Protein: Imidazolonepropionase
Amino acid sequence: MSLFIKNIKKLVGVRREVPVSPLKGKEMESLPCLDNAWLLTEGDRIKDFGAMDNTAPETLASLESAADEVIDAAGRMVFPSYCDSHTHLVYAGSREMEFMDKLRGLSYQEIARRGGGILNSVELLHNTSEDELLRQTLERAGEIISLGTGAVEIKSGYGLTVEDEIKMLRVARRVGEETPLKVSTTFLGAHAVPARYKGDRSGYVTEIVRDMIPAVAAEGLADYVDIFVEEGFFTVEDACRIFEAAAGYGMRPKVHANQMSFSGGVQVGVRYGAASVDHLEFTGPEEFKALQDSGTIATLLPGATFFLDMDYPNAKQMLEYDLPLAIASNYNPGSCPSGDMKFMMALAMIKMRLTPETVLNAATLNGAFAMDAGADYGSITVGKKASFFITKRIPSYEFIPYSFTSQLIGDVVLNGKIYRQ
Ligand code: NIG
Structure:
């Protein structure tokens, strides 16, 4: 199957060479584009692209006639698919009643202390069959695809038993098999201490290390291991135990870090070579220095900061420290029931004063690197996966985050195929 797209008003995020590392600091300001362009895919890859004006009319004609499908994208732009590197897409039911509690003044931590929050989702998930869980998750997967996402990381963490964590990760893997999304999976057994270990957090970490990690690894269900390092959840010492155990099975760390306090999550992530440390509301120069040249990506989750009505991280200062930033949705039932990457970019611009170029790079190329998928996703590059979206008619790329509730996507192409729901 080949697809030829002509008269593209702007091809956005064009990188001539396959990028080998995420963009950092000032580099994030640069978003190379090609005006009045064409793009050719072959199989699931980008085969070639160029400027309409610099290509001989007979070459254009022969590319068009040889292609299986042709799209005239006059007035429309092409963007690399969003790479959403932090989600909890697999969950059962919803938690809108806690949302009401929050509006009445209860904090996220207070709800958790009363046995709600994550533990609420744990109970719902336990009482839901794997097939039903898959059905609910596929609905959300279809939703994010239509919003422009092409690659997604999905965590466990609402199981908290060997059986239910495995159920979640199997569902996550099946999303990767049954949709054109590229799916990375993360084992997050250390998301909350389950009720059966109340008062014995360390005993639960022992179960994670002794039983859960080997069981998850035996089925090859997780690419990464994650932990919520936070007061009332898990400690830096717990993270060390879990990362050391997971390293033996090739699971690279990620960390829920510094969301509600200066928890040490950033530093322990860096120490163990984490792919990313995510959240980062409670960070400053000490954390930024730890991240400099570390190979760990600082991932912002502005949707959760918004939904929990917190103060935003100092992302501009992170850029001054020359850090690589990614933006992800954190789609989950408790702190961010949305997987809309356009909205996340708009929040990052409005609340953290980032530029459109920076947020687009953070939501595409750097998101891909936060899933170790930068060689295949996140930019328009010959040889990369043909995963991109074609907008409706729009005046500029700034219009995307500016027009933050409008549906601006015309066609979605994933792995070289036009996606039809
Ligand atoms: O990333 N902070 C921890 N985990 C999720 C929230 C999960 C939930 O509340 O269900 C997050 O915000």
The first strand starts at residue 2 and ends at 12. Residues 303 and 336 are 6 Å apart (CA to CA). The chain has a mean pLDDT of 97. The radius of gyration is 21 Å.
